[in-house]
Amino acid sequence: MYICFSATKDNKCPEFYEYYFESGKMNREIKAFAQEGARNHGLLNISVDDFFNSHLFIPPLAEQQKIAEILSTQDKLIELNQRKIEELKKLKKYYLSKMFPKKGSNVPEIRFKGFTEPWEQRKLGNISEKVTRKNQDMVCDEVLTNSAEYGIISQRDFFDKDIANNENIDGYYIVEPNDFVYNPRISTLAPFGPIRRNKLGKLGAMSPLYYVFRTHDVDYSFLEYYFKTNGWYSFMHLNGNSGARSDRFAIRDDVFKEMPIIMPQYIEEQQAIGKYFTNLDHLITFNQRKYEELKKIKKALMQLLLTGIVRVKT
Prior knowledge:
The chain has helices at residues 14-22, 27-33, 48-52, 61-98, 155-159, 220-226, 233-239, 253-256, 267-305, and strands at residues 35-36, 44-45, 120-123, 128-130, 144-147, 151-154, 173-175, 180-182, 195-197, 204-206, 211-215, 260-263. By secondary structure, the chain is of the alpha+beta class. The strands form 5 sheets. Strands 4-11-8-9 form a 4-stranded antiparallel β-sheet, with no helix packed on it. The longest helix is centred in the C-terminal third of the chain and has 39 residues, at 267-305.
């Protein structure tokens, strides 16, 4: 089913051809000959003769080698940055497992210097209240959603459009900055649904399908990262179920408020933990943006070098 080939001796720079084909420069040639398979399975019908009659527009061998060298260097930068992101994510996962107590313990394995007191257990209902204020006066016209991967985000950004409209959001809850939202939708990233904090710095309207709560007597950032651990999973497992819909977790509000939260006695330790993970997330975000910029630079280089707009000296 595959067409395999090697470059001829006079043009033997496989790295150049790899980038040439990656750039999609040959796609127009292929499209001129190929037709989609009759079974509509994504395969294209193209004869071997037609494939080898496709035209390539390539520079001399020495220039091919130079172009391949430039693009390979850019690929190495991208790969190094990607590895750094993965290492930072592993580091975050490791410290999330070590800086919050394991089940049955009241002290974490790793602590900041100067903190020795055992952590205390509080109920979620003791440090929060459910938000019940509705959007009846149309205070908010921007609808938010709670994504396990992206956190609380504008519906316009998540879906590229407004799913709800102004005519049906008067019954939505008003979510203020730093309010928490529990989304009962189950996913691989959130087996009992995600609990995320509104870090957008603005008001938004949230579907009444979600449980919105406002906290007190606890550091926002500490609690945010607590809910990124699995320390609260056992409570959910014992006190709720997947309900009639297999993609949603069901738990009563009055039961949800009974969730035990283990936390440092002193706000200073809570703040130190929250600040550490916040800074780690900022570092991950910075490197993710750098990664995207490096990919854009590579794409621009390919456009310039593989079309002959810019020629390289050999």
